[in-house]
Amino acid sequence: MSVGKKLNLDYARRGEGYYYGDGAALIAEWVALAASKRTSCKGQAEAAYKAMCKFAKAIGCNPDKECFIRQEDGHWRISFEAGPYEWAIVASEALGQVGIFAEPHYSFDLCFYPE
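Given the sequence above, the corresponding structure tokens read:
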């Protein structure tokens, strides 16, 4: 997918405030577009983490306290527990649109697995 292509996150935007927290579609878009520029599992997780931290800062959170990235049992996990409700659910779907498999462990973190 080219980075200039718009992701289909209209369902999430319509569901914000009801199914998802405000901003869930935006953080999902930032995470997916950032990760789509990388090819390795670690690179995708790092790019997604940087986008997640940028979003955290934009909404007034301190990413040094609210966000983390770490390697666990052969995969990479990023987390933003203070992020918009269910953001990782939307982000995993957005990542799928750019050909990246990442699954939420909870609704506030994503696990990136090597192929």
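DSSP finds five helices and four strands in the chain. Try to locate this feature in the token string yourself.
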